[in-house]
Amino acid sequence: MEHAQTRAQDDQTGLRSILQRCKTIAVVGLSAEWHRPSYFAASYMQGKGYRILPVNPRYAGGTVLGMPCVASLADITEPVDMVDVFRKTADVAPIAAQAIALGAKCLWQQLGVANMQADADARAAGLASVMNRCVKIEHARLFGGLHWVGVNTGVISARRAA
Fold first, then answer.
1. Gyration radius from the chain CA atoms
2. Is 2-150 CATH 3.40.50.720?
């Protein structure tokens, strides 16, 4: 029973709900390099109307995606709905604690990131929690826009030419 409850937020309905209500996303580990997955995912979400708050000590004091970058979640002074984590699994527990302290609604661990303790801590504090999923892929899958290479270019089509 506990396992079913723990994973309930990872079903389509739960993911759709999270993405509909979490409009301000603090992206921990957001790179300023356009070819990095964190940049690609955050840029996509920004293009869909989400407010992106970059968190990366390497770029603190500068900007990423046109937004001021801070060194840690503790430096954010505005409400945050989701903390999207692009860090190693071993680094997530303190990030989860900061997300809880910040009053975030959701802790989202990106593809390849699955810290069970951080997940349990977030859920115990009342946050939604998602592990080992890409926010960009899930948004595109649930709200349209996922095509070849994950980009809706409109070039590739299964329709016959007229």
1. 16
2. yes
